[in-house]
Amino acid sequence: MSDDALDPRRHGADRADARRLRAVAGPRSRVAHVFYDRGGFIGHDGLERFARDFFRVAPFVVLAAYIALYALRRAGVALFWAPTGLGVIFVIATLRSAPG
Prior knowledge:
Number of helices: 3
């Protein structure tokens, strides 16, 4: 939320209402301000866009790596570590239960 959206005077409220609203929305609005700044989601410069895209794609890269290691192990390739079938199912279930 932007500070303008939290300003009740904009909607005809008095100063006491403004203080109460800021007290209730305080910590949440500060955290949201980190991700949603001035009316748009983060990603204004190249580093922010890279971070957003990295964390958007990373779970699927991990899933692909798990499946590849599991398949190599099932094919008989000697690996130092490879996930079990339950591990692969857990990653799939975790991604499936996530929002979005």
